[in-house]
Amino acid sequence: MTESVVAQKGPYEVELKAGEKYFWCACGRSAKQPFCDGSHKGTGFKPRMFVAEKTGTAWLCGCKASKTQPFCDGTHETL
């Protein structure tokens, strides 16, 4: 397994819709950050599927090191 790429040193502000399924990019290679576009193929990474619990703004991890993936936990501040 290779290391993930830091897509950005900060979270992505996104609007989510309750009950919708999303695929967060775990490898950092997607051109559609913070969501998966299939760029992980051959890397050993897989996107993290999640269903939004509520409609509204969410902060998704951009550094790919959060302990609360796919959500930002501030880990980017230590990179």
List the helices and strands and how they pair.
Blueprint: E1 12-16, E2 21-24, E3 48-51, E4 56-60
Antiparallel strand pairs: 1-4, 2-3
Task: Please tell me about this protein's structure.
The protein is mainly β and 79 residues long. The protein has one domain (1-79). 0% of the residues lie in helices and 23% in strands. It has no helices and four strands. The strands form two sheets. It has a two-stranded antiparallel ribbon with strand order 1-4.
Tell me briefly what this model is.
The chain is built from no helices and 4 strands.
Strand ordering within the main sheet: 1-4
Global shape: globular
Number of strands: 4
Q: Briefly note the structural class of the backbone.
A: mainly beta
Low-confidence stretches: none
Number of separate domains: 1
Largest sheet: 2 strands, antiparallel
Helix fraction? under 10%
Distance between the termini: 21 Å
Gyration radius, rounded: 12 Å
Given the structure, what is the number of helices?
0
Residue fraction in strands = 15-25%
- Listing every helix as H and every strand as E from the N terminus to the C terminus, the arrangement reads EEEE
Mean residue pLDDT = 96
Overview features:
two-stranded antiparallel ribbon, mainly beta, single chain, 79 residues
